[in-house]
Automatic annotation (TrEMBL):
Its EC number is 2.7.13.3. The lineage of its organism: Bacteria, Pseudomonadati, Pseudomonadota, Alphaproteobacteria, Sphingomonadales. GO terms for molecular function: kinase activity. The keyword Transport does not apply. This is histidine kinase. SMART domains: HATPase_c, HisKA. InterPro entries: HATPase_C_sf (IPR036890), HATPase_dom (IPR003594), His_kinase_dom (IPR005467), HisK_dim/P_dom (IPR003661), HisK_dim/P_sf (IPR036097), Sig_transdc_His_kin-like_C (IPR004358), TCS_sensor_his_kinase (IPR050428). It catalyses: ATP + protein L-histidine = ADP + protein N-phospho-L-histidine. The chain crosses the membrane at residues 12-37, 62-81. It is a multi-pass membrane protein.
Length: 348
């Protein structure tokens, strides 16, 4: 019985009933003790010559009060408990038969005040899940748009009687391949966020060198230039997380910078100061509110493609959020920044 009272889980009815039973036991023990004290009854009297008188006193002053008072009290208390918990049963039934739809909330008008904070927290969680589902749906629509456009262009070229532009087809296929790779990478990051894995340390400067070296031939072919600024003090700066994801984020920023930089212009990649990567271009710059709008998953990719910031910024923003950092902008310097936490987890 005591165990039923102390356990963290179990039936509320059972716990209340067990508590009431404990109260009854103490009440009976108190009555018996008071009776023995008042009439000076000893345990020996229960089996000695005064046995009949002792048991008569117990009957009149203990058993009859229990039958007259405690038994009706138990029945009334059981009714009160069932009535108090009946709103929970009705709410459970309504939830069990509710259709699986967005916007579902738990009714709380009839629920006890003590349960209201619990129900409010569940409704807030359902609202966050609705928002997450809406963002994923909008993101999926943007991805479909990003894939549908190059597919339509390639289909038109294949159906055209003109000779195939193989170079253009390769560019379209390459863009689709990079998008698919980024989506797979994003799915991997979100899976790791749901089941966290031990982070790995890597050097920011090494990521910048690898990405710039890989993109430099393509950028030069497009008539632009790229440079990497790597201060000596930043050579050993490390962060923890997913190296391939950070490389994909930096690649997206560089490709956006190349699109807004006029022919002959320079895209500059810098490491630091601090734990950050900077990409400066010769475009008009991107204001913080514009960056926030374009980095949201539901910002249409076709809108972004006209100013050089597309679906990639949504992926970049999610990658940085997964690393505890942020995607920021310095419009006066025409620079986008990948800013990582100032301290590694083991240093915090």
């Amino acid at each position: 019985m005591i165990a039923a009272l102390g356990q963290g889980r179990g039936s509320i009815r059972l716990r209340l009933s067990a508590g009431l039973a404990v109260i009854c036991v103490f009440a009976v023990a108190t009555l018996i003790f008071a009776l023995f004290w008042e009439y000076d009854i000893t345990p020996q009297d229960l089996s000695g010559p005064n046995t009949r008188a002792a048991w008569r006193e117990i009957r009149d002053h203990v058993l009859l009060p229990i039958l007259v008072v405690i038994v009706p009290t138990l029945l009334a208390t059981s009714w009160v408990i069932n009535r108090a918990l009946s709103p929970l049963d009705r709410t459970a039934q309504s939830i069990a038969h509710a259709p699986a739809r967005r916007g579902l909330r738990l009714p709380h008008a009839e629920l006890p005040v003590e349960v209201a904070p619990f129900v409010t927290s569940i409704n807030a969680l359902l609202a966050r899940l609705d928002d997450a589902a809406a963002q994923h749906e909008a993101f999926a629509a943007d991805v479909a748009h990003e894939l549908r456009t190059p597919l339509a262009i390639m289909a038109m070229q294949l159906d055209s009687p003109e000779p195939l532009d193989r170079a253009h087809l390769r560019r379209e296929i390459g863009a689709m391949r990079r998008l698919v790779e980024q989506l797979l990478l994003l799915a991997q990051i979100e899976a790791e966020a749901a089941t966290p894995q031990p982070p790995q340390s890597f050097i920011l400067a090494g990521v910048a060198e690898d990405v710039v070296a890989a993109l430099a031939p393509q950028i030069i072919t497009q008539g632009r230039e790229i440079a990497l600024d790597e201060p000596a003090e930043m050579a050993a700066t490390t962060v923890q997380g997913h190296r391939e994801a950070v490389a994909a984020a930096l690649r997206n920023l560089i490709e956006n910078a190349v699109r807004v930089t006029p022919p002959g212009g320079l895209v500059r990649v810098a490491v630091g100061p601090g734990r950050c990567l900077r990409v400066a271009d010769e475009g008009p710059g991107l204001a913080p509110e514009a960056l926030a709008r374009l980095a949201r998953r539901h910002a249409r990719a076709d809108h972004a493609s006209r100013d050089g910031a597309g679906l990639g910024l949504s992926i970049v923003e999610r990658i940085m959020a997964g690393h505890g950092g942020e995607l920021a902008t310095a419009p006066e310097a025409r620079t986008l920044i990948l800013r990582f936490p100032a301290h590694l987890p083991d240093e915090a």
